[in-house]
Amino acid sequence: MRYYPVQLDIRGRRCLVVGGGGVGTRKVETLLSCGARVTLVSLEVSDKLRRLSNSGDITLRERAYAAPDLEGVFLVIGATDDEDLNRRISTDAAAFNVLCNIADRPEKCNFILPAIVQRGDLVLTVSTSGKSPALAKKLRTELERQFGEEYALLLKLMGAIRRRLLAEAHAPEAHKPIFEKIVHSDILNWIRDGRMAEINRLLAEILDGGWRAEDLIAEED
């Protein structure tokens, strides 16, 4: 395995995107959804990116890229179709010790971006190590069909239960049988069908009284 799998916390970190076309727009949106402070450098700016700039959600530098743009940056994404520019961004990023991704050019990256399926806080990623984006996209589509929004609600429920249990004077290992019983039940089908009474009955069987799924899910919102 060439790549070391990792999920980065980029909340509040400065991230740079070079290129304001369709690819750059998608990269900016993903970074913003993860809480990054995004700067866009590009002579080309899509309508969506223009609106994000006008609303103050991103910093726009409507000009050509220059190496000093990398000062103080945590990561940079090159989203241009200019090979010379992409090469320069990659070289500059190495000099500044900045994480660098060049769209569709894994040989110029020190990290690559997987295909993503997100269901609330559940994040499923698919990587072909840069060898076949088409296959990664196909697998992502299959995962999207397999993992519906019920998984987002289940994760909220599990997170709330875990938080409550950890607040009690129990060893974390003591909670394992509880979570095993929940995840191996029919709870996903019950969530999918909106059968909250069945879920609450399960919680009453496994846990002490006073556990209602509706309340637990609301705690995580």
Folded structure, characterized:
This protein folds into three domains: 1-113, NAD(P)-binding Rossmann-like Domain (Rossmann fold); 114-147, Double Stranded RNA Binding Domain; 150-220. The chain is 45% helix and 14% strand. The protein has nine helices and seven strands; from the N terminus they run E-H-E-H-E-E-H-E-E-E-H-H-H-H-H-H. The strands form two sheets. Strands 3-2-1-4-5 form a five-stranded parallel β-sheet, sandwiched between helices. The mean pLDDT is 93.
Key words describing this protein structure:
alpha/beta, five-stranded parallel beta sheet, 221 residues, two-stranded antiparallel ribbon, 3 domains, Rossmann fold, Double Stranded RNA Binding Domain, 7 strands, single chain
Main beta sheet: 5 strands, parallel
Q: Looking at CATH, which topology of the largest domain would you report?
A: Rossmann fold
* SSE ordering: EHEHEEHEEEHHHHHH
What is the highest CATH level, the class of the largest domain?
Answer: Alpha Beta
Query: Structural class per helix/strand content?
Result: alpha/beta
Q: Which regions contain 5 or more consecutive residues with pLDDT less than 50? A: none
The percent range for strand residues is 5-15%
CATH homolog superfamily of the largest domain: NAD(P)-binding Rossmann-like Domain
Shape estimate = elongated
Count all strands and give the number: 7
Number of domains: 3
The radius of gyration is 22 Å
Q: What's the overall average pLDDT, rounded?
A: 93
Strand order, sheet with most strands: 3-2-1-4-5
CATH architecture of the largest domain: 3-Layer(aba) Sandwich
